[in-house]
# Entry
Amino acid sequence: MTISTQSIQPAIELADAERDQWARFKDRLRSNAGEDVYSSWFARMDLERIQDDCVYMTVPTKFLKSWIQSHYVDRVLACWQAEAPGVKRVELSVRTAMRVAAPAVKGPQVERRPDLSAARPPAEVRNTATAPVSASHDALGGSPLDPRLTFATFVMGRSNTLAHAAARQVAEGRRGDSVMFNPLYIHAGVGLGKTHLLQAVTWAGNSNPERKVLYLTAEKFMYGFVAALKSQTALAFKEALRGIDVLVIDDLQFLQGKSTQSEFCHTLNALIDAGRQVVIAADRPPSDLESLDDRVRSRLAGGLVVEMGSLGEELRLEILKSRVSAAKTHHATFDVPMPVLDYLAKTITHNGRDLEGAINRLLAHSKLNATPVTLEMAEREVRDLVRPMEPKRVKIEEIQRVVARQYNVSRSDLLSSRRTANVVRPRQVAMYLAKTLTLRSLPEIGRRFGGRDHTTVLHAVRKIESLVAKDLSLSDEVELLKRQLQE
# Structure
């Protein structure tokens, strides 16, 4: 099968003999492949013409063409040769949106499926260097990629070294290599580099023509699955995902819906069991994704779970230097003195996006007003970014995680009905912290601790209050836990 590079012209009128052959070919292919496979991959295929020893057919998307070429070309040719022995080859092309559909043929009518292929990323995120990789990724239906988010632009520090090394190992793997850890699960707060690493894995992985690396946000995964259900192409959706060598899922915490989560679980299991790599990012560890099914959380926790910590001052300074260097490629005269960079690194502590925003503000002010960057100007322009941050909102799930780690028990132990001494005390401490560090009511806290009554929570709070007043060791432990939760 060859690939046509010419634009598709409107379909010509088929002769009666060709229409009859087309109808018989489709019946034969449906019988040969089975109704599910036929509906998923061939229902939208049209006959263009039969000329000499070649049959010219069209499909609506590049993905369909690629999939049929890779998996069913011999079967398609064999079915044609059974109807027309003189056929030596078949050619499949992608028809344009303006193409006129082929005339209807006699026999059973097959519903035309809507095009499920993903739109190309916006032009502003494509360039010459990344176009081949982007085109390959788009053909698989992936979420848009930002060409700036590569390993070359990722700034490493103590808080992200392990995550970077693991992501790099995945990106540099080859088809057929044994998978070292699966899935790779990276979690961190907002603006700490999760998406940067995942897109870097995708760019680097897709530069190897032997591998198919697909980057999807959880939202895009949900959209694709729901669209496939509505258009009755769920089998095609599943087969396409399970043919990926490396599946990269971002923002898993947003995955909602029982049927969508079930399909994600099946896809995850199928890929891992087949030795394919899965990389996932979320804003919390698997155990804290309470909206997900227990089976999914268990499978996620079975891989390598890596936390990307907060940005230290040294790393913040390096990120600022990197952003200034990047800005200089387009604005050669732009310069930020070291005292200004030191000031920004010390005072903007929340996340990397605030650091980038600060550099953008300095660049805009400097260029629009034709003035150099000074410390006084920086203090004025980024003052809202360095205001004292609101106290961190502590979540009950985070309290349970930190307390469980401190006392060497599991989070499920805290939620269980166990009454052993090594579980009761940590549970009471966790309830006490939930009452003092959050705005949750006693009944709500009780529900979050395995459905307990509010009187149980009240007893735990009063018990720890009493012990902290006279037990210095416990008081120090509780203060340490508070500091960890509020950092």
Remarks:
- Confidence is low (pLDDT under 50) at residues 1-12, 97-132.
- The domain at 2-94 is CATH 3.30.300.180 (GMP Synthetase; Chain A, domain 3).
- The chain has 21 helices and nine strands.
- The beta strands are 2-3, 46-51, 54-59, 89-94, 184-187, 213-217, 246-250, 277-282, 304-307.
